[in-house]
Amino acid sequence: MKALYYPEYGELVVNDQPVPGIEADEVLLQVAACGICGSELETFAHRSERRKPPSIMGHEFSGTIARIGSQVTGLREGDRVVSNSIVACGECAWCRRGETNLCPRRQVFGMHRGGAFAEYVNVPARCLIPMDAHTDFRAACLTEPLANGVHMVGLTRHLAAPRVLVLGAGPIGLMAQQAFQALTGAEVLVADVRSERLEVARRLGAARTLNPRETDLGEVIAELTASEGLPLVVDAVGMEATNRQGLALLRPGGTLVMIGLHQNGTPFQSYDIILREKKITGSYAATQKDMAIALDLIAAGRVDVTSWVNYYPLPEGETAFRGMLSPGNTQIKSVIIL
């Protein structure tokens, strides 16, 4: 099979790789489309130890079942499906509670096992969700990043926040924006330092967009909330500066959701958290339930996961990576088509 192969740090090449075999509980999936995640761009650009070559990356994918393992039930060859990025063990306490994203034995496609920047990938059947015949594979492959947004909604739904600020209008920030809009009806504000990303956020329905290089976020939020602060902030950047900023913009009793992984910092003052009863929660990946909700949103046309995305055929996979990482790049998200 053809694959976008990561043979060593700093290199990507399209070449022939063996078609993976399947275990009894797995299917062989013919990949139709696979999104490039920011974590994979970081891996390639900065030689991350989290994804070591040689390997095939790719964990945001959709496709058609080509072959089924002997123990798989409920699925057939030819079925159109999307996959979670995580392979959970299915047996631990977290999995039994439905918290499959927190499974201590979890594997991630393209990190701990073969990924989907290839014509075929082997997938445990429990990771798959069937899709209808009308949803485009190019949209469906982004179910997983949208499900990250759905997961954040689930973590914070009890707050019934009428207004949410999303820091960062990259792919996950835009997915969070749309998930909160579609599932809660909240007014979503989006902040980013790049004007082209803010333009997309506006087009996707943001109530207001803010550029911290041009506007003092503290002053704007104080004006909007009569100096009370926000009930909910999502940090989809993950820098110490955005962690601190998100916490500072919360009202007493407010919640900061951290999903960005740009830096592994310790930016907090404990008194601010304690004396104002602010909450900080991490958000990681998505459960199968989150995936199903996200796919339904895409199939129903309630979110837009295509108009702001760039598409590349597999032979141009390296071009897609290097283009996203080039100085002055204005692309937000790229998907490889097979």
Task: Provide an overview of this structure.
The relative contact order is 0.16. Strands 3, 4, 5, 8, 9, 16 and 17 form a seven-stranded mixed β-sheet that branches. A six-stranded parallel β-sheet has the order 12-11-10-13-14-15, with helices on both faces. A two-stranded antiparallel sheet has the order 1-2. The mean pLDDT is 96. By secondary structure, the protein is α/β, with parallel strands linked by helices. The radius of gyration is 20 Å and the shape is globular. It has two domains: 173 residues, Medium-chain alcohol dehydrogenases, catalytic domain (Quinone Oxidoreductase, Chain A, domain 1, Alpha-Beta Complex); 137 residues, 3-Layer(aba) Sandwich (Rossmann fold), CATH 3.40.50. The longest helix is centred in the middle third of the chain and has 14 residues. It has eleven helices and 17 strands.
